[in-house]
Q: What sequence folds into this?
């Protein structure tokens, strides 16, 4: 007997119930989905796409719960980061496993997973010597940049990219496992000590996480930021913060460190290397973390040599997603001020202006958010 549904009931259903009913009529799974797709500079479009299918024995199909909008996505739309045209963007996401390939051994249907979007070969010299971030194979494989990612209802992922999320870690916080993992790799590189004075240049999401971790480790932490909204967020974390357009930061750092300079300076923006050299103490360390391929810096090598400055680079995470989960689970970092807004996927295009980029003009505008999360 065919199944009949009362039309008035169907039209009155909340959206999740409506989707469930329609899904049941098509064999238990939706055949199409909504996705935000990169098209060109300043152009990301909401499209209807087929739900992706499993194509190899190491893959899982994940129903996406939530996805954070990363600063990298802003730079992609500005033309400052490579990307594949027609890729579904979004790489900070958490979802539920709904289908498995036959070869999957560590996951089951119903598992909630966070994603490490940077896929690596695992076989090259870099991967096998503790420097997997430099794997040449990954340069055009990143999920949500070169392969379809998390601004959608479903995504196919390799088993190796998935990390089980514990029950006591909420969905929204779990979107930041990969983000925090990249920051933890930077912390491993810079080897911060309890007696260090730390200056974080830029208080966006990355600067937030570096500052929050530093507050747990270092003796003193100071941040810089030009955006009024994010300056207010820094104050909510009790981080001393100064605007370089209004204040002499070098003088503030000198006062903050009793004339020595900062033991560690972290460039969380990707544009601040020249200033970092001015602020760091002799013998101190600079972590070049933020990325902006459009920026060039002029430095005096003799300054680095004479003052014994150590300039260190750090890129993505390296075996740091599990530690990130443990830190988020512990509550040691206050993530409440971090998340500004959770919005439907359909409104995702409009979020970029709140994050400082007017897509119509590609001009920077004042920010109105720290982290925005979209939910399908």
A:
């Amino acid at each position: 007997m065919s199944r009949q549904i009362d039309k008035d009931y169907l039209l009155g259903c909340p959206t999740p119930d409506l989707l469930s009913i329609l899904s049941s009529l098509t064999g238990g799974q939706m055949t199409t989905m909504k996705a935000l797709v990169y098209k060109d500079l300043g152009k990301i479009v909401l499209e209807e796409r087929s739900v992706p299918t499993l194509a190899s024995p190491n893959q899982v199909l994940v129903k996406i719960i939530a996805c954070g909008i990363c600063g990298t996505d802003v730079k992609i739309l500005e033309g400052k980061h490579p990307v594949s045209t027609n890729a579904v963007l979004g790489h900070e996401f958490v979802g539920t496993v709904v289908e498995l390939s036959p070869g999957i051994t560590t996951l089951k249907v119903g598992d909630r997973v966070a994603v490490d979007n940077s896929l690596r070969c695992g076989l090259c010299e870099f991967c096998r010597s503790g420097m997997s971030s430099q794997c040449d194979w990954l340069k055009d494989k990143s999920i949500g940049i070169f392969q379809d990612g998390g601004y959608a209802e479903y995504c196919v992922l390799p088993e190796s990219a998935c990390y089980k999320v514990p029950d006591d870690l909420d969905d929204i916080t779990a979107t930041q496992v990969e983000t925090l993992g990249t920051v933890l790799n930077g912390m491993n590189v810079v080897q911060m000590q309890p007696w260090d004075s730390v200056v974080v240049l830029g208080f966006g999401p990355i600067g937030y996480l570096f500052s929050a971790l530093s507050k747990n480790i270092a003796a003193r932490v100071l941040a810089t930021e030009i955006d009024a909204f994010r300056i207010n967020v820094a104050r909510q974390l009790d981080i001393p913060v100064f605007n370089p357009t209004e204040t002499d930061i070098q003088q503030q750092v000198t006062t903050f460190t009793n004339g020595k300079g900062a033991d560690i300076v972290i460039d969380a923006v990707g544009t601040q290397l020249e200033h970092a050299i001015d602020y760091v103490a002799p013998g101190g360390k600079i972590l070049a973390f933020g990325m902006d391929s459009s920026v060039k810096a002029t430095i005096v090598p003799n300054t680095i040599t004479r003052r014994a400055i150590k300039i260190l680079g750090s890129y993505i995470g390296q075996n740091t997603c599990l530690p990130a989960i443990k830190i988020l689970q512990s509550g040691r970092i206050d993530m409440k001020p971090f998340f500004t807004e959770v919005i439907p996927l359909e409104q995702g295009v409009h979020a970029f202006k709140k994050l400082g980029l007017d897509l119509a003009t590609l001009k920077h505008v004042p920010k109105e958010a720290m982290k925005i999360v979209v939910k399908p």
In short: The domain at 22-176+338-375 is CATH 3.90.180.10 (Quinone Oxidoreductase; Chain A, domain 1). The chain has a mean pLDDT of 92. The chain has two domains: 22-176+338-375, 181-313.
